[in-house]
Amino acid sequence: MADIIQLLPDHVANQIAAGEVVQRPSSVVKELLENAIDAKASSITLLIKDAGKTLVQVTDNGMGMSTTDARLSFERHATSKIKVAEDLFNLNTKGFRGEALASIAAIAHVALKTKTNESEIGTALCIEGSKVISQDPAVVPCGTTIAVKNLFYNIPARRNFLKSNPVETRHIIDEFHRVALAHPQIAFTMLHNGSPVFELPVSNMRQRIVNIFGTKTNEKLVPVEEETDLVTIKGFVIKPDFARKSRGEQFFFVNNRFIKSAYLNHAVSSAFEGLIQNGTHPGYFLMLEVNPKSIDINIHPTKTEIKFDDEHALYAMLRATIKHSLGQFSIAPVLDFNKESSLETPYSYAGKRAVAPTIEVDRAFNPFTENKKQNAIQFPYKRDKKSANWEALYLGLNDGSSPPQEGQITFESEEVTGKLFDNKEQETTQQTFQLQNKYIVSPIKSGMMVIHQYRAHERILYEELLKNITLQQAVSQQLLFPLEVHLSKPNLKVLKSIQEQLEFTGFVFSNFTDETVSIEGIPVALVESQVPQVLENLVADVVAEIPEANFSQNDLLVKSLARSMAIKAGVALNKEEREHLVNKLFLCKEPSVSPSNKPVLVTLDAIAMDKKFV
Ligand code: ADP
Ligand code: MG
User: Fold this and answer.
1) Ligand 1: which of 31, 35, 46 to mutate, judged by most atoms within 8 Å of the beta carbon?
2) Which residue of 119, 146, 416, 579 is 20 to 30 Å from 343, comparing CA positions?
3) What is 208-328's CATH number?
4) Which residues have C-beta atoms less than 6 Å from ligand 1?
5) Are strands 187-192 and 43-49 parallel, antiparallel or unpaired?
6) Which of 291-300, 378-387, 413-422, 514-523 is predicted with the least confidence, judged by mean pLDDT?
7) Any idea what DSSP says for residue 153?
8) Ligand 1 pocket test: which of 101, 145, 303 has the largest number of ligand atoms within 8 Å of its C-beta?
9) 51 vs 378 pLDDT, higher one
10) Which sign does the torsion angle of CA 148, 149, 153, 157 carry?
11) What is the average pLDDT score of the chain?
12) b/e code 84-120 from CB counts within 10 Å (16+ = b)
């Protein structure tokens, strides 16, 4: 039999590849937008006609291409993004297969105009069905414009397969959202048949979400933040009240790339369990940052699926982080009688059963001896019912330290002096130590606890200030002499815009001039000398975010204040200060995490320690 195998001509191979890469106009949109981002553009314009069936055009102000590169970019497996196989495991670009432009050029009329920064003159190139029709020098601005016309002109079956214009437009807008959300630092514009659909200026993530989904969205967002060795999680979830029947606003980005993951979606949904109605779906915008080496994005040609090395850990982390964020949000000024009680429990204790209280009578107890250690029922820190969980940590810590002695005389005295009671009130027999002026260490029943002093104070201030600002009940300390603080004009304007809310935290502003503000009162927890810095930080934080909806703005202000007011690491604390801090911490709703979701304390149990000594 004669040889029958032959190599497919390039244009046929490209058409076959196109079947994988380009399903519809929105696929072209995605590839072109991603190329523009890889080219480091800071401004990108997408223009479509007839739902992209007639034209998809993307203009960027990125690095552009040389004449040779412009020509090469349409060859299959032509890419500037990887050189050796190892590069595949360290990808920071969207593209790397070098297939998109070749595929698109096989099934459409493509016009490219491009110029690099270094060259005087650019290149214009026309390609139809993989054939170069013309190539000319052209006077064009730096960057690249690629116009893709008459998609599938040479494959009528596929053209007929396209859906109605509204459906195809929907697909395009979805792709546009995904790319624009992942890159708020890039300005995007989208026009359809000549009319603007989106105009998105450079902004932060919150602002980008609001610009896309509408002003109302702002008040629905609950910030999420967590940083661990495995992953950094940032972004927002939508408050449970606004969960929807459709899965519209669900976005995962891994290293700035939109991905679909039923598994991670499940992690988020399970964090919302009990907070949303059956049949509704939580909304989220979550940016995950992981080491590129720990993922494989190569498993799907259009790259929306991804494989993680340590999926289980990621699942657990994501779920816990979102639970925390929702827990913090439950401090919001909403009276919620159906609040899930597990939200109030520090997460490491969530699954544990409550310890039944035990009462022990210490026969050796003598109220007249100075040795307070003999008191059998001791609670080292002041507490109220909120801190009930923490009692379990301490309960029984001193058991056995003074075994009841038979025959010893016991007093049953009615006589109680005021002094004795006073002492008892302030008594915190628990030992605390300071480590490196940074951590407070304290023995607990199961071992020991290490508290991060800055974060603990941040948590305390955050809850206090949030309560004040929400209930509008702040106490202010009057300054002896009004304090004049200098700020730039725009910063003063910002300060003025949040004046009212700040006054609920205890600030009293008396006079705004062009460059200064006079302050007559400040929050009780604030020291006068800190005021200028605190205000400066506050304004910077407000500028970086969107000040609008009440909850988010209060939360933002309070977080910022707590951040700059909290005692920093490096400050030595005396015994009273340490104890005060610990007491206050355990009166907080969420003592175990800081307002930005970082751990406030860790416990080391004796069993783990024992293991170290074998
Ligand atoms: P990939 O993105 O996978 O590398 P493409 O076919 O999408 O493959 O693009 C091929 C090459 O063309 C890219 O590697 C890049 O060098 C160049 N290129 C494509 N679009 C642009 C653009 N907008 N600006 C600059 N270079 C571009
Ligand atoms: Mg590409």
Assistant:
1) 35
2) 579
3) 3.30.230.10
4) 31, 35-36, 38-39, 60, 62-65, 73, 78-81, 95-102, 144
5) parallel
6) 413-422
7) T
8) 101
9) 51
10) positive
11) 80
12) eeeeeeebebbbbbbbbbbbbbbbbbbbbbbbbeeee
Are the C-beta atoms of 301 and 21 separated by less than 8 Å? yes
* Model confidence band, residue 205 (pLDDT cutoffs 50, 70, 90): very high
Give domain limits for the chain: 10-200, 208-328, 439-602
Q: Where is pLDDT greater, at 487 or 375? A: 487
Query: Contacts for 189-195 with beta carbons within 8 Å, 24 or more apart?
Result: 189/43, 189/44, 189/45, 189/46, 190/45, 190/46, 190/47, 190/48, 191/45, 191/46, 191/47, 191/48, 192/48, 192/49, 192/51, 193/48, 193/49, 193/50
Interval 7-32: pLDDT, tens: 877 777 777 777 777 989 999 999 99
Residues 279-330 pLDDT 10s: 889 999 999 999 888 887 665 656 677 788 888 899 999 999 999 998 877 6
What's the CA gap between 34 and 176, in Å, rounded?
A: 10
Nearest CA to ligand 1 atom 8: 98
Which atom from ligand 1 is nearest to the alpha carbon of 143?
24
Closest ligand to residue 98's CA: 1
**Cα–Cα nearest to 381, from 584, 567, 573:** 584
Per CATH, the number for 10-200 is: 3.30.565.10
End-to-end Cα spacing for the chain: 76
Residue-by-residue DSSP string for 175-237: HHHHHHHH-TTSEEEEEETTEEEEEE-S--HHHHHHHHH-GGGGGGEEEEEEE-SS-EEEEEE
Domain 439-602 has CATH 3.40.190.10: no
588/457 Cα distance (integer angstroms): 11
Q: How far is CA 579 from the centre of its chain?
A: 33
Contact 539, 491 (CB under 8 A): yes
Phi–psi pair at 215, nearest 5 degrees: -55, -35
Identify the pLDDT of residue 133: 96
Q: What is the pLDDT of residue 359?
A: 52
Cβ burial, residue 462 (10 Å; 0-12/13-18/19+): buried
* 3-state SS, residue 148: strand
pLDDT tens digit string along 560-602? Answer: 899 988 988 888 888 888 988 988 898 888 888 998 888 999 8
Ranges 174-188, 257-271, 489-503, 549-563: which has the least confidence? 549-563
Residue nearest to atom 2 of ligand 1 (CA): 95
Of 202 and 493, the one with more pLDDT = 202
How many A from CA of 73 to the centre of ligand 1? Answer: 6
pLDDT at 218 > cutoff 80 = yes
CA distance 60 to 188: 10
Give Cα 475 to chain centroid, integer Å: 32
| Segment 408-462, tens digit of pLDDT | 433 333 333 333 333 333 434 578 899 988 999 988 888 888 999 999 999 999 9
d(CA 351, CA 61): 53
Atom of ligand 1 nearest to the CA of 98: 8
3-class secondary-structure state, position 536: helix
